[in-house]
Amino acid sequence: MPATILVADDDRAIRVVLSQALGQLGHNVRAAADASTLWQWVRNGDGDVVITDVVMPDENALDLIPRIKDHRPDLPIIVMSAQNTLVTAIRATERGAFEYLPKPFDLTVLMNAVERALTEARGPARPEQKAEAQNGVPPESLPLIGRSPAMQEIYRVVARLVNADMTVLIHGESGTGKELVARALHDFGRRRDKPFVAVNMAAIPRELIESELFGHERGAFTGAVNRGVGRFEQAAGGTLFLDEIGDMPLEAQTRLLRVLQSGEFSPVGGRQAIRADVRIIAATHRDLRQMIQQGAFREDLFYRLNVVPVRLPPLRQRPEDIPDLARHFLTLAQRDGLSAKTLDGSAIERLKSYSWPGNVRELENLMRRIAVLYSESVIDRRIVAAAMVEQEPAALPPYGNGPRGNGSEETLSQSVERHLNGYFQAHPHGLPASGLYDRILREIERPLLSLSLQATRGNQIRAAEL
Length: 466
Description:
The protein is α/β, with parallel strands linked by helices. 44% of the residues lie in helices and 12% in strands. Helix 14 packs across helix 16 (381-391). The protein is globular and about 75 Å long.
């Protein structure tokens, strides 16, 4: 059925594009360049869906949304913004936006959002979403940084989860920022005034994990001379972050499962049940499904934890975020008392050409090393290459994960064979007829050039000779 769509954006090109696209779907479109006109239309009862930019000449749409929701609670609002940060996504969602889309947006995704909004608006009335405004969050305190499509999707997921108590399982390689996502879910949610307690399962001796999590009574075991308060009690009312959940022993997994099922736990050696009023967020870099097949992780616990899965992309899959991250870390170093530094174009290209096996954590370490060891105010490719060698003299391989961990070094032919297996797995019905040979050459040549430049500290002539 045709509907009336209200569009507010000070960019004339966007107004024209949306008017044409929505018109082709049979909808009536009214487009304005300011928030005051949009507000007048809403007050008059016009429109079935609102599409609005955030920053407009007369008012920020995030301030207008609560008024619209108070006046017309069931009017869906789709928010677009070039200020595509986690805070923008959270603010839009908390104020009652139906959907948040970063600019530049995918037109098909926006059209689908409009159709979903119309479907829900014409169905049973939804309960009004109460806004819990997050005011005064400075840009430098953003918990997550990145404008790539992959990170924008993370922002949208986090924005929808902050005020829900659902259990979240964060997947991602080491150094991708799993704890940052967990902290964002806590710091921007309704439990933010309560404790955030993080526990790394890999850092606790197996025999002490149950006592660490659930506490213990006096005399429960040798050395327990006093009652011990566990992490569940410490996190009462707040969030318990279980990092590296894949390293939890099976016996502790069983107790954790009972807590998730019943909402109660008992300290080691105790009989009195304690209510577990905590939100559980777990994280792992392991393949838990594979561990289930190997009998190392409980399947029922996996499904209890994996209510909402969040997958963090490795840094090599979002190279467009590297410049913003690198500048952010240099700014943090400057606040620590080090001199201000900027990156030139060649340095940024060098950073983007590396695969970052240590992910964001490795990039942060490199930027801090550069801030400390180099006096130049402008950082170029030569300095970046030299700092990489100093950071890891053995030259971490730019691609892959190095030795297979079986006690012996992997040969080049074994590494290439393992790499090629990925192509065969991706094409179970036969490899493509062309392009594979050239692709392998490119993938070998790039790290070879990169390592040669590192070994010669950026000397291109010597690298060419090698």
